[in-house]
């Protein structure tokens, strides 16, 4: 038996709803499907009298009128959300070459482990005696991350990469405060390469320091001579990553670390690019004092869409007393919590994003030490294969072997056809791939930063390269209209950032 035709009445926003039309571009919104009085549930009456909102909620907390939510049948509601899921792109669907983000496939065994009742159903306020398994996991994860980075101790509390950065800066400040004397005023400057991640200057500012930019040399690495010119007793430290944001290994890293240490500064490692050196070399061996890690990048914890992430911080023995606390520790009678002697305090309400940490530990167990090295080797191989495949079609600003990501430029396409990096990214959507990072790093004109990661097959890499080459060979001013085959076309991203439209009713009428 088929359902009777449904009358489409005006939606809460005042727009007349129309009958659904197949085809993504013309599908009605959930508000346009709304019909007054329709509900997405049908429960039998409990026999209880209707409840009075005034008796349960104080009048001053009640809204003057119901919120204008769409009114739908369960069928329409399920169809709406199912259509939305079909529009999404994810690492489970294909290559996600977003440079410097390490958006790689997340093994489902990690989700399975994190969903175990013994982990997922534990309250964070449970006493140590009742969560010995959790504490053992966290202690083991700290030990593994310390070994991978070559550091002495780890805090798992920071819930994201930026939180890890700020924690590192606060550790830097605490260290310098502990060694300050009346004759040595507080240090005020932190050095950052001009190719650094955009969050670095923000973290420096939040940490109470002033950013000083270090230029890159002709190789795309830190200009050591310029760095030495900037070093003095007012420098608290330097923030950098290796390989850097251009995907290039800082070959002078030992000299850089020694120069900063000579003036009493600390060397901080931004762990965004750790995926390129796993099992090959370690930040601790390069001379770093503080290392933050992005478990949601390197160790296959799902990220994007707001999190949750995990940004543990690892430090040398000299800085371990300042780590956030409490930390999980092994005791003679099992496991418990311990706050370091000179701890900077909590940087998270509880003990970090625990289930993200469980996923990362599962990934480490499943991959093993030898597997981590193969991860790095495959990621580097894939990026260099792409760099060679795109040669002649895109400019290569720093033409030398790269690490986990390759940076090419669309500057030649702009000169010849008026096509910019953002146009290339938008056209790549038409080929069924997520766009790479565009217009970054800022030191490269019309940059395209591509990170294929180790999880993509040679066939997928070849298809991605073919798509990029096709875009370059067919470039024309018409590309400014891309994407033309997606549910949503080109949006004014700058205007969207400046003029937020957060509700359906407030969106511009067209």
Structure notes:
With 510 residues, this protein is α/β, with parallel strands linked by helices. The protein has 2 domains: 24-87, no CATH class; 94-120 and 127-510, Aspartate Aminotransferase, domain 2 (3-Layer(aba) Sandwich). 34% of the residues lie in helices and 10% in strands. It is built from 16 helices and 12 strands. The protein has helices spanning 53-56, 74-87, 108-114, 117-120, 132-149, 161-179, 199-206, 224-230, 253-262, 283-286, 295-298, 354-389, 411-417, 421-430, 458-473, 493-498, and strands at 153-155, 189-193, 210-214, 235-240, 266-271, 290-293, 313-315, 327-331, 334-338, 406-409, 437-438, 447-450. Strands 1-7-6-5-4-2-3 form a 7-stranded mixed sheet, sandwiched between helices. A hairpin with an 8-residue loop joins strand 11 (437-438) and strand 12. Helix 3 (108-114) runs antiparallel to helix 12, helix 5 packs parallel to helix 12 (354-389) and helix 6 (161-179) crosses helix 7 (199-206).
Distance between the termini: 39 Å
CATH evolutionary superfamily of the largest domain: Type I PLP-dependent aspartate aminotransferase-like (Major domain)
Overall geometric form: globular
Can you summarize the main beta sheet? 7 strands, mixed
What ranges have pLDDT less than 50 throughout 5 or more consecutive residues? 1-25
CATH level-1 class of the largest domain:
Alpha Beta
Going by CATH, the architecture of the largest domain would be: 3-Layer(aba) Sandwich
Number of strands: 12
- Per DSSP, the total helix count is 16
**Total number of distinct structural domains:** 2
Helix and strand element order: HHHHHEHEHEHEHEHEHEEEHEHHEEHH
Average pLDDT level: 89
CATH topology grouping of the largest domain: Aspartate Aminotransferase, domain 2
How big a fraction of the residues is strand? 5-15%
The largest sheet has its strands arranged as: 1-7-6-5-4-2-3
The proportion of residues forming helix, as a percent range, comes to 25-40%
Structural class: alpha/beta
């Amino acid at each position: 038996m088929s359902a009777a035709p449904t009358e489409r009445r005006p939606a809460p926003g005042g727009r007349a709803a129309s009958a659904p039309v197949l085809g993504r571009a013309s599908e009605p919104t959930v508000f346009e499907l709304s019909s007054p009085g329709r509900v997405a549930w049908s429960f039998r009456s409990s026999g209880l009298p209707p409840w009075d909102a005034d008796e349960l909620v104080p009048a001053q907390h009640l809204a003057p009128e119901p919120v204008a939510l769409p009114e739908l049948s369960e069928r329409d509601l399920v169809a709406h959300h199912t259509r939305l899921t079909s529009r999404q792109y994810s690492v489970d669907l294909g290559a996600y070459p977003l440079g410097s983000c390490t958006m790689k496939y997340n093994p489902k065994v990690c989700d399975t482990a994190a969903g175990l009742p013994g982990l997922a159903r534990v309250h964070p306020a449970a006493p140590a005696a009742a969560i010995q398994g959790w504490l053992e996991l966290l202690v083991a994860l700290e030990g593994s991350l310390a070994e991978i980075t070559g550091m002495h101790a780890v805090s798992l509390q920071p819930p994201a990469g930026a939180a890890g950065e700020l924690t590192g800066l606060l550790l830097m400040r605490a260290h310098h405060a502990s060694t300050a004397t009346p004759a040595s005023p507080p240090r005020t400057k932190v050095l950052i390469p001009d190719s650094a991640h955009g969050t670095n200057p923000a973290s420096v500012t939040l940490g109470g320091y002033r950013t000083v930019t270090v230029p890159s040399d002709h190789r795309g690495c830190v200009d050591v001579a310029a760095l030495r010119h900037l070093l003095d007793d007012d420098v608290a430290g330097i923030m950098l990553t290796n390989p850097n944001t251009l995907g290039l290994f800082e070959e002078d890293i030992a000299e850089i670390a020694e120069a900063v240490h000579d003036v009493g500064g600390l060397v901080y490692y931004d762990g965004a690019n750790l995926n390129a050196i796993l099992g090959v070399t370690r930040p601790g061996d390069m001379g770093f004092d503080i290392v933050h890690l992005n478990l949601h990048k390197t160790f296959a914890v799902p990220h994007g869409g707001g999190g949750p992430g995990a940004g543990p911080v690892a430090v040398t023995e000299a800085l371990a007393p300042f780590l956030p606390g409490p930390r999980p520790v092994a005791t003679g009678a099992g496991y418990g919590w311990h706050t370091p002697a000179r701890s900077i305090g909590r940087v998270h309400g509880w003990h970090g994003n625990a289930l993200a940490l469980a996923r990362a530990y599962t990934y480490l167990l499943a991959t093993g030490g030898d597997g981590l090295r193969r991860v790095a080797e495959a990621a580097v191989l894939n990026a260099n294969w792409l760099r060679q495949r795109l040669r002649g079609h895109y400019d290569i600003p720093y033409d030398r072997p790269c690490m986990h990501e390759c940076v090419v430029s669309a500057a030649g396409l702009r000169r010849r056809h008026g096509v910019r990096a953002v146009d290339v990214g938008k056209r790549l959507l038409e080929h069924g791939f997520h766009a790479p990072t565009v217009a970054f790093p800022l030191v490269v004109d019309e940059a395209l930063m591509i990170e294929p990661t180790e999880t993509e097959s040679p066939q997928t890499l070849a298809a991605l390269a073919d798509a990029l080459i096709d875009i370059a060979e067919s470039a024309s001013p018409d590309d400014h209209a891309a994407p033309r085959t997606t549910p949503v076309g080109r949006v004014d991203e700058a205007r969207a950032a400046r003029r937020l439209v957060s509700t359906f009713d407030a969106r511009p009428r067209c």
